[in-house]
Design a protein that fits this description.
The chain has two helices and 21 strands. The chain has 378 residues and is mostly beta strands. It has a single domain, classed as Glycosyl hydrolase domain, family 43 (Tachylectin-2, Chain A). The strands form five sheets. Strands 9, 10, 11, 12 and 13 form a five-stranded antiparallel β-sheet that branches. Strands 1-2-3-4 form a four-stranded antiparallel β-sheet, with no helix packed on it. It has a four-stranded antiparallel β-sheet with strand order 5-6-7-8, with no helix packed on it. Strand 20 and strand 21 form a beta hairpin.
């Protein structure tokens, strides 16, 4: 049983003991009871019925679709909200229930991710204690989607870290995230084995992607803005191969897009040379950066930071080849300036695309790999 599971079981009568243990271990402490009222009513729905926000995370639990998001306020703490609906299209009209508000100096809450594991909900998110240059990954959880969450606490990931998400592959739990040694220069993707749902094995931390291809360096590299690989989302294809689909180029730009990392058959997730990167964006709005055979979006600009809508958020329920499957992503409508404030959640779909070759050069290993790719639809 993990330390986190024990916290869930003991959070009632032993709350004081839990908080004391957290303090002794140097973990972040905030109120141990769930938020019961939002600092402001959430009305982030536009006339088109879309959620006005970024970084969607949506899963299916049984027949219910569950999402998590963060709202930022000028005069109140950042707050996490959970919605539940009978379809992803109906999530915007569902009640946004506040489940936690930042406290104790915590701020800049980014990109929460929700999963359902062994009968419990877990939410992972990034937050900072002073400014956006010191983000770390945190975890909270509950037996219920919309309440009862324990006080979030920091994971043991060294350095600046955002956009983390766990997954199970080949009977081993993994954690993938976006991190940086020098945040103002380059954001990379890292992976590590997990010892439990709330801790990684630091000895297995491995770099698996850097934004070094021309199509993922259209923005960044100047004015303190980095080249970017972020928002990693794991999924398993019909051949059983692991993919990490991620966002490239800056989220501040309409050049934002999705690229793909595909692990070779039988490959080691911690070996960077076992990963093959798509030769361009697979979902984007700039025709010049799209992979050959893939086409730019027609309705939105800068699609990115998506969520595969999987049962329980588990990649082992990844869809087989065949009809399109649900997806949620953020973007900005074409015809209006691209700003963070104008990003919305859009329901879309994706399919597996067979016989897709990714090629590379001047690195160890075979120069190309053929397997499934993905095609995305607005």
């Amino acid at each position: 049983m993990s330390r986190f599971s024990r916290r869930l079981r003991r959070v009632g009568g032993a709350a004081a003991l839990i908080l004391a243990t957290m303090a002794a271990s140097g973990l972040a402490i905030s109120p141990a009871h769930p938020v019961v009222a939002a600092p402001h009513a959430v009305r982030n729905i536009d006339p088109d019925g879309l959620i006005k926000n970024a970084d969607p995370s949506v899963i299916r639990v049984g027949s219910t679709y569950v999402s998590v998001e963060v709202q930022h306020y000028r005069d109140a703490p950042d707050t996490l909200y959970v919605r539940q609906a009978d379809s992803i299209q109906n999530l915007p009209g569902a009640a946004a229930v506040p489940i936690w508000s930042a406290s104790g100096g915590m701020a800049h809450v980014w990109a929460p991710e929700i999963i359902f594991d062994s009968g419990r909900y877990y939410i992972y998110f990034a937050a900072s204690r002073d400014n956006a240059a010191s983000h770390q990954m945190y975890i909270t959880g509950s037996n219920w989607a919309t309440g009862g969450y324990v006080a979030p606490y920091q994971m043991n990931i060294p350095g600046w870290a955002i956009d983390g998400v766990p997954f199970l592959f080949n009977n081993q739990r993994w954690f993938v995230w976006s991190g940086a040694e020098r945040k103002e220069v380059e954001q990379n993707l890292y992976i590590a084995r997990m010892n439990s749902l709330d801790a990684i094995d630091q000895k297995t931390i491995s770099l698996i992607s850097q934004p070094r291809e021309g199509w993922e360096r259209v923005t960044g590299g100047a004015d303190g803005k980095p080249w970017v690989n972020e928002g990693p989302q794991p999924i398993k294809d019909p051949n059983g191969q692991l993919h990490i689909v991620y966002s490239a180029n800056g989220s501040w730009s309409d050049q934002y897009c999705l690229g793909d990392l595909r692990l070779r058959s039988g490959g080691d997730p911690t070996n960077v040379w076992d990963w093959y990167k798509s030769n361009g964006c697979l979902f984007g709005s700039n025709p010049k950066t799209m992979m050959d055979g893939w086409h730019p979006t027609k309705k939105v600009n800068g699609p990115g930071h998506h969520s595969f809508v999987l049962l329980n958020g588990d990649i082992n329920t990844s869809p087989p080849a065949g009809p399109a499957f649900p997806l949620m992503y953020h973007a900005v409508d074409k015809g209006i300036p691209y700003t963070w404030e104008d990003r919305h959640w859009y329901p879309g779909s994706f399919v597996w695309w067979g016989n897709t070759t990714y090629s590379r050069r001047d690195v160890p290993g075979a120069p190309s790999s053929t397997g499934f790719g993905l095609k995305f639809f607005e």
